[in-house]
Fold this protein.
Amino acid sequence: MQQTRGRGTAALASAVVAAALLLFLISRVGPWSRSSSQPNGIGPSVFDLRAEDGLATVERTPREGVESEVVGSSTIEGDAVSSLPSDEFAKETEIEKKVDQFRLAMESSLLGVLDAGAFLDTALLLTELEVASNAIPESDPSGALRYPVLGTPEGIQAELRIGQTSNPNFASPTLGLKIHVDLPNSPYLLEGALRQEAEATMQIWIDPNGKIKHLGILTDFQPAPDGRDLMLSQGSIPLTAHYSLDLESLTWTSTSSLLKDGSLQDQALPVTFLGRTCPQLGELEKLSSGLTEMYESLKSN
């Protein structure tokens, strides 16, 4: 009987010590609450007891297969995850995607496949940026003044082009964008030739009353100087493609400059369209307005 009482006393003492230890830990940690995204009865939650800076902390460890994100000292599980990947990473990824789409649209245009929406989306993005106050010193064959666009996405460089026209049907200055896109690797083989660079020019012509008359798109993939000996001596190698949209008749005309059997030639380029055949007038007006604002910002400097 005394032996049994001894065992009971020892067990009771152990229980008291365990309870006291638990109360001590709770007093140091403070209360915790279950995440509202973890309904009761949907499986167990696992708590880890860890020491940081001499204090015990309790962290919820997510069940296997459940995504989690730690925000401050709380953990969000399951459908509560809304910011992975981060907004900044997602924005960079989206920009990279748009740059790749634009480059592919440029390549397709050499073969007569025009995605006008891709060109317009890129131009509208660039008109939201600022322009350097100093012009590019190198002269342009067309006589246009060129101003670098600042803060362009990685992989793209652009410039505002300000030209003049003697055609009485159009107003001066004529405004446009020249866009340079980095090639994904070097050397870059495209349509039978190693390419040095990829450039696109978008130009808008308006009449003296401010009405948009024409939209021009020019793509240019010049061969690399050290790759000319590797170009095909027979067949056709496209170099540039020029598309012009008449806003009154809503018709496109297109030509291509190419090396054909070793000689430079210009010829008509049949067109296949991706997406809409013609941009909406509102989109073109937004582009024209953006170019005008860039030009006006230079005059105010």
